[in-house]
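Lab notebook, design round three. We kept the backbone fixed and only want residue identities now. Task for the bench partner: fill in a sequence for the structure below.
Input structure tokens:
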């Protein structure tokens, strides 16, 4: 049976944001049936989030304010992620009414793992490996931190703190590095949750782009997931990546929107 993609996407995002945090000292969750709030303990909204919202329309305005106050009391920046199955239907408007600001909207895409387009997963001799050691995890962290200028030190700090959880044999979060001549140049994350696998943190060092590395680091986790018996993958695509993901076999089924408190 095909998964309910909107619900599966929300559940997968919940695992992505909360699994390691729930197992890492100094990080905490306030998990309810109506919303889950995640606090990494770091002043970085990349790892602090409100996710999987299932609020009744009459209760939503007050509950939203309570959730915003939860982060404010700890003086944490955060993002409120609105996925394709979140409720109420006008959740985005309620978040804006409560003082948050729209940040970005990305298409949610899905692919049948049995119908992926063929991709060279070793372009130019690229070697892609699962992250299994702290050294490899730090390489993953540094590549992702480089999205900011200067690199975001709290991204690196998060992976150091969450290392034990992320490197555990039972972790549903599989991290990958791509290497050229022994140098880590690309990353991707595959998260298992909601009956599907989700792709996150697909990144290539700017000096190594346009060589097929991005497609390869995307495809290798999907092939591993297929070998493990999974049938469906989901992801959030930035605008410049939609065409690439379509070529791999992904199609749009909804959207994910991020809201943030106003910049101070």
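Proposed sequence:
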């Amino acid at each position: 049976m095909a998964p309910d993609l909107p619900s599966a996407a929300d559940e997968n995002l919940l695992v992505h944001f909360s699994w390691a945090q729930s197992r890492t000292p100094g990080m905490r969750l306030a998990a309810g049936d109506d919303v889950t709030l995640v606090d990494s303990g770091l002043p970085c909204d990349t790892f602090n989030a409100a996710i999987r919202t299932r609020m009744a329309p009459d209760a939503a305005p007050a509950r939203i304010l309570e959730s915003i106050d939860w982060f404010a009391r700890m003086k944490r920046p955060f993002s409120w992620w609105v996925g394709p199955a979140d409720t109420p239907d006008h959740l985005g408007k309620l978040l804006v009414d409560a003082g948050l600001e729209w940040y970005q909207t990305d298409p949610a895409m899905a692919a049948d793992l049995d119908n992926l387009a063929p991709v060279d997963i070793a372009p130019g001799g690229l070697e892609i490996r699962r992250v299994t050691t702290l050294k490899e995890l730090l390489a993953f962290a540094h590549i992702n931190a480089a999205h900011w200028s200067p690199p975001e030190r709290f991204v690196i700090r998060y992976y150091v703190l969450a290392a034990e959880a992320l490197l555990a044999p039972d972790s549903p979060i599989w991290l990958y590095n791509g290497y050229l001549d022994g140098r880590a140049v690309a990353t991707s994350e595959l998260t298992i949750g909601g009956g599907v696998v989700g792709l996150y943190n697909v990144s290539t060092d700017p000096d190594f782009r346009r060589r097929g590395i991005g497609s390869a680091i995307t495809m290798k986790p999907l092939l591993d997931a297929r070998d493990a018996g999974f049938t469906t993958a989901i992801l959030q695509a930035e605008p410049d990546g939609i065409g690439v993901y379509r070529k791999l076999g992904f199609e749009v089924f909804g959207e994910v929107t991020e809201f943030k408190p106003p910049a101070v």
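Keep this in mind before ordering anything: The mean pLDDT is 95.
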